[in-house]
Amino acid sequence: ITQLENWIKEIEKNETESNSLISDLELSLKEKNASLEKIETINSNLLNIDKELENKIVNLKEQITKLKSSSEKISDKNQLQLKSLQSNSNKIKVLEENLKKTKNNSDKSEKENSKKLSLLENSLNNIKEKNTKILKEKNDLSNEIISLKNKKKNLNNEISLLKNELKNISTKNNSLKNNISIVVKKNKALKKSLDTQIADNKFLKEIFVYKDFELNGVNPAELVDNKLIEKIEIEKEKEIAQSDSTYSIQLAVLKFPTTEFNQFSDLKVEITNGLYKYLVGKFSNLNDANAAVRKINNFGFKNAYIIKTSK
Questions:
Q1: Which residues contact 292 (CB under 8 A, 6 or more apart)?
Q2: Which residues in the chain are classed under CATH 3.30.70.1070?
Q3: CATH 3.40.630.30: does it fit domain 2-161?
Q4: CB neighbours of 260 closer than 8 A, spacing ≥ 6?
Q5: How far is CA 287 from the centre of its chain?
Q6: Is this structure's pTM higher than 0.90?
Q7: What is the mean pLDDT, run by run of 10 residues, along the chain of 311 residues?
Q8: Residue intervals in the chain for CATH 1.10.287.1490
Q9: Phi, psi torsion values for 195, nearest 5 degrees
Q10: CATH architecture, domain defined by 245-311
C-alpha cells in the first residue's frame, strides 16, 4: 500500500510537471500566434507598399513612355531628366527585388511558424493523452488501494474474531484444567479421607482394646507400643489441622475484571499474578459447600467448583 501511495505521489508530481509544461507550451503558442499576427500585419503592409510601388511603377512607366514619345523634342535638359528617370527606374527595380526578397522571407517565416505551430499542437495533444492516461492509472490505483484497505479491514475483523475464539478456547481450557485439578484434589481428598477412616478404625479398635485392658485390671501402658502412641498423636494433629480448614466456591479465574458475578453479596476477588480469582462463600464442611455449588450451577455458572481455604 505504501508503494502504491508513493507511486500516486510520483504520478501527481508528473501531472504537475505536465500541467506546467502545458502552460509553457500554451504561452509559447500564444507568443507564436502574436508573432504570426505581426507577420501577417507586416505582409499586409508590404502588400500595400507593393501595390503602391506597382502603381508608382505604372505611373513612372507611363511617364517614361510619354517622355520617350517626346524624347526627340526635348532638350539636353530633358535628356538629363530622362537619365534621372532611368536612375529612378533602376531604384524601383532594386526596390522590387528587395520587396520580393522580403516577401519570400515572410513566406518562409510563415511556413516555419506554421510548421512549429503544428509541432506544438501535436506535442500538446500528446501531453493531453498522457495526462488522460495518468489520470486513468491514478483512478485505478485509488480503487485498488480502497479495495486493499477493505480487504485489510476484513482480515483485521477475522483476526479479531479468531482472537476472541482463541480467548474463549483458552478460557475453556483453563476451566477444564481447573476442573481436572478439582477432580485430582477431590481424589486426593477422598484417598486421604479413606486413609483417615482406616486409621480411625484402627485407632478405635486399639482404644477398645486399651479400655478392655483397663476394665480387666491390666495396665495398658505396659502393653501399648511406643509407635502406636506416636501414631495416635499424629492422628490427633491431623484432626486439629483439618479443623483449621474451610471451603469456598471458585466461580472463575480471568485475565480482566468483570461485573458478571456482582449479584453475589458475599463475592470476594483475589488478585494473584495479574489474574482475577472470583470466590463466593466460606463453609466449614464439604456438605454445605456442595449444596451451595449446586445452587450456583443452577444459576448458569457451570464452571464453579469447591476449593479449600484457610480460616
A1: 249, 280, 281, 283
A2: 245-311
A3: no
A4: none
A5: 59
A6: no
A7: 78 81 83 85 85 86 79 65 74 82 80 80 79 78 79 76 72 73 75 64 49 46 44 44 74 91 91 91 91 92 88 61
A8: 2-161
A9: -60, -40
A10: 2-Layer Sandwich (3.30)
